[in-house]
Design goal:
With 491 residues, this protein is an alpha/beta fold. It has two domains: 367 residues, Rossmann fold, CATH 3.40.50.12780; 103 residues, ANL, C-terminal domain (GMP Synthetase, Chain A, domain 3). It is built from twelve helices and 26 strands. It has a 13-stranded mixed sheet with strand order 2-1-10-9-11-12-13-14-15-21-20-17-16, with helices on both faces.
Length: 491
C-alpha cells in the first residue's frame, strides 16, 4: 500500500493540517490534492515527467501549498525534486534533472526557458474545491533526493514508490509518531527527514503544523505552542532557544527529535529546562535511512553518542585499510541496511570509488561502536584539521567555544594563507562582545598555545541539515583576512 493510499484510509473528518488558524481535515486535504493533480495533468504533467516543486512562501518548504503540490505529483506517479532552497534549485537545474517546475523560483534562481513552468497556489481558507477523486498512480512515483552536499557537490539518490513507503514505515517503527502527533517540522522539506516525518504523521492519523508565516520566529511562535513533536537539527534548536525566551508553552508534552548532528550537553540542559520533556537523537543518512536512535542520556557515556543501532542496521568501525577495529575504538564508520540505496542516481560517485563500496556505505564519519550497540560520532573525516602536523578536531572546538558567554554560533576552519595554514574561528556574537577577552578564553581551552585568527561573522552558513560547509567558509575567511591585510598595508 502506497503513502497516498495510507493517507486516504484516515477518517475524513480527522484534522490533518493546522495552517495558521485553519484546521484542515483529511477529506479537505485529499480534495485539494485531487484538484491539484487534475490541474497538473491538464498542464501536461504525467508519470513520465520529472517535476521540481517549490510552491508556497515558507522558506523551509513546509507550506500547505507545497505539500499539496508534492502529494499531487506523487499521486500522478511522476518523479519529483523538492527545490526549496537555492542549492537544490541550482543542483537540479544544472544537472538537467527537471523538465517542469511547479511554483515560484524567481527569488532563488532564474529558470531556463526550456523548463516548463506551472504556477500553483492552494489556500486552506478558501472554499473546498469540487474535484473528482483522481486515479492513484503512485506506484510509479519517484523522489530524487539531494544529499546534504557539504563538499559543494550534492548528489542525487533516487527513491521509487516502494522505497518512499519503506522509509516512511521506518519512522512509524521508531514509535515517535501516532494518531495524537502534532508535528512541527523544521528541517527543509528537501531533506529526507523533512519529507518523511510529515508523511509518517499523516499515515498514522496525526496532524502536521504548517504555519502561514514565511520564516523565522514568526513561524515558531505560531506553531510551537501546539506541537508535541518537533523535528530539527541541533543548530536549529540552539537558534530557537536563543530567540524564544523563557519556558515554551506546552513543554511538558513535547518531544524534540534531533537529526544531523551531535547534542552538546549545554544544549541538552537548556532544551529540557525550557523547551521539551523528552529529547531524542537520531543518526542516519539519505543513502541508508535511520541507523541509530536514543534518548538524551546517552551523551553521558560519550559526548558524541547518537543512540543505539536500530533493528536491521549494520555498522562496522574500520581502520584506513578497511579492517574492523575493537569495540569502543575510533575509526571510520561503514554501514548497510535493507533499505539503503546502492549508488548515486547520476553515477557521479560509482560503486568502488565513492561512498558506496563492497555492499557498504561510508558516510565519511569517524565514530565508535560499543559492545551494547551504542554508536558515538566523533566528527567527519574532513573535520579533523591538519595544520602542519598539528591535528585539531573542529567539532570539539566548536562545542567548547560555543558554550562560552556571548557566543551565539561558531565554526572552526583551517585557512590556507601564503604563510601557511592557520586555525580560524568564525564567531557570531553581539556587537558589544569583548573580542580580546574571547580570544583569551579560547586560548585557555586549547591544550597547546597556538596562533589563530578570530573573525566576527553575521551568521554561519549551513546546509539543509544544519551541517557546516567548512571548505567554503575557510575560503571566505581567508579572503577577508587577505583584504584586511591589504587595507592595513595601504593605510
Amino acid at each position: 500500500m502506497g503513502i497516498i493510499a495510507r493517507i486516504t484510509e484516515q477518517p475524513g473528518e480527522r484534522i490533518a493540517v493546522e495552517a495558521g488558524a485553519c484546521k484542515v481535515s483529511f477529506a479537505r486535504l485529499l480534495a485539494d490534492v485531487d484538484a491539484a493533480a487534475a490541474a497538473f495533468r491538464a498542464d501536461g504533467v504525467s508519470a513520465s515527467s520529472t517535476v521540481g516543486i517549490r510552491a508556497g512562501a515558507a522558506e523551509n518548504g513546509h507550506s500547505y501549498a507545497n505539500w499539496v503540490a508534492h502529494l499531487a505529483v506523487i499521486k500522478i506517479g511522476a518523479a519529483h525534486v523538492s527545490m526549496t532552497d537555492t542549492a537544490s534549485v541550482r543542483a537540479a537545474l544544472q544537472a538537467g534533472r527537471v523538465d517542469c517546475v511547479i511554483g515560484s523560483f524567481e527569488s532563488l534562481i532564474e529558470v531556463p526557458r526550456s523548463v516548463r513552468r506551472i504556477q500553483f497556489h492552494a489556500d486552506p481558507a478558501a472554499p473546498s474545491p469540487v474535484a473528482e477523486a483522481s486515479a492513484n498512480d503512485e506506484a510509479s512515483a519517484q523522489r530524487l533526493n539531494l544529499t546534504s552536499g557539504t563538499t559543494g557537490k550534492p548528489k542525487f539518490i533516487a527513491w521509487d514508490a516502494a522505497m518512499i513507503e519503506r522509509r516512511v514505515e521506518q519512522v512509524a517503527e521508531s514509535g515517535v509518531v501516532g494518531a495524537d502527533t502534532r508535528l512541527f517540522p523544521l528541517l527543509h522539506l528537501r531533506t529526507t527527514a523533512g519529507f518523511r516525518y510529515p508523511l509518517a504523521a499523516w499515515a498514522a492519523g496525526g496532524r502536521v503544523l504548517l504555519p502561514q508565516a514565511r520564516k523565522g520566529l514568526e513561524r515558531d511562535r505560531e506553531a510551537m505552542p501546539k506541537a508535541n513533536l518537533v523535528a530539527c537539527s541541533p543548530p536549529q534548536l540552539k537558534e530557537r532557544l536563543g530567540g524564544m525566551t523563557g519556558a515554551w508553552p506546552g513543554r511538558e508534552e513535547r518531544t524534540i527529535l534531533l537529526l544531523g548532528g551531535r547534542l552538546p550537553a549545554a544544549l541538552r540542559e537548556a532544551a529540557l529546562e525550557r523547551a521539551c520533556a523528552r529529547l531524542l537523537i537520531s543518526y542516519g543518512a539519505t543513502e541508508t535511512g535511520s541507523i541509530a536512535v536514543g534518548g538524551h542520556e546517552v551523551i553521558d557515556r560519550h559526548p558524541g553518542a547518537v543512540g543505539f543501532l536500530r533493528p536491521g542496521a549494520e555498522v562496522e568501525i574500520v581502520d584506513a585499510k578497511g579492517q574492523p577495529v575493537a569495540a569502543g575504538q575510533p575509526g571510520l564508520i561503514r554501514t548497510r541496511t535493507a533499505i539503503m540505496a546502492s549508488s548515486y542516481e547520476d553515477g557521479s560517485a560509482p560503486t568502488g570509488g565513492g561512498h558506496f563500496r563492497d555492499s557498504w556505505f561510508y558516510p565519511g564519519d569517524i565514530g565508535r561502536l560499543y559492545e551494547d550497540g551504542l554508536l558515538a560520532i566523533e566528527g567527519r573525516a574532513g573535520d579533523t584539521l591538519n595544520l602542519g602536523g598539528w591535528k585539531v578536531s573542529a567539532n570539539d572546538l566548536e562545542a567548547r567555544v560555543g558554550e562560552l558567554p556571548g557566543v551565539k554560533d561558531v565554526c572552526v576552519v583551517a585557512m590556507q594563507l601564503p604563510e601557511g595554514d592557520r586555525l580560524a574561528f568564525g564567531i557570531v556574537c553581539d556587537d558589544d562582545l569583548d573580542m580580546k577577552a574571547l580570544n583569551q578564553r579560547i586560548h585557555s581551552l586549547m591544550a597547546r598555545r597556538r596562533p589563530f585568527h578570530l573573525v566576527r561573522l553575521p551568521s554561519i552558513p549551513r546546509n539543509a541539515m544544519g551541517k557546516i560547509p567548512r571548505a567554503r567558509i575557510a575560503s571566505r575567511l581567508a579572503a577577508l583576512y587577505g583584504a584586511a591585510r591589504k587595507n592595513a598595508a595601504n593605510a
